[in-house]
Specification:
By secondary structure, the protein is α+β, with helices and mostly antiparallel strands. Helix content is 23%, strand content 36%. The longest helix is centred in the C-terminal third of the chain and has 17 residues. The protein is globular and about 30 Å long. The N terminus is likely disordered.
Length: 129
């Protein structure tokens, strides 16, 4: 997603008073495998933060759906596996990219540390802006 579009979306969301994230999202493209009770999918995340990620998909799961996520961070040896919950979809708010926002459930401490370190590094390098 283009930087200008990301900023536009953030500003539009804040203007509507709907910005509820605790952490700013950081651009990162990584394949994410996820499953619901009855289906398995493989898509891409386009941004991530300490609390969750956005999955680009033409068929987002409904808000409130529990999903099991599995994704590999750049430079990591092991994939991260975590339970998540769909907290919003592109059909519920204006978004130039179809998809869904997923909030992480209980991350293992090592996984949380890896995500936090990556997000901080991307922000420091200016790649997340």
């Amino acid at each position: 997603m283009a930087k200008a579009q990301i900023e536009h979306d953030r500003e539009a969301s804040r203007a509507r008073g709907r910005e509820r994230r605790r952490s700013e999202r950081t651009s990162l493209v990584v394949r994410v495998d996820y499953s619901t009770v009855d289906a398995f999918f493989s898509e891409f995340t386009t941004d991530i933060n300490e609390g969750g990620l956005f999955i680009e998909t033409d068929s987002p799961a409904p808000t409130g759906t529990d999903v099991l996520l599995k994704f590999q961070l750049p430079g990591a040896d092991d994939p991260i596996k975590v339970q998540g919950r769909v907290v919003w979809t592109s059909s519920e708010r204006p978004s130039p990219v179809p998809g869904m926002g997923v909030e992480f459930g209980d991350l293992e401490p090592g996984a949380r540390t890896r995500i936090n370190e990556l997000v901080r590094q991307l922000r420091a390098d200016g790649l997340g802006r």
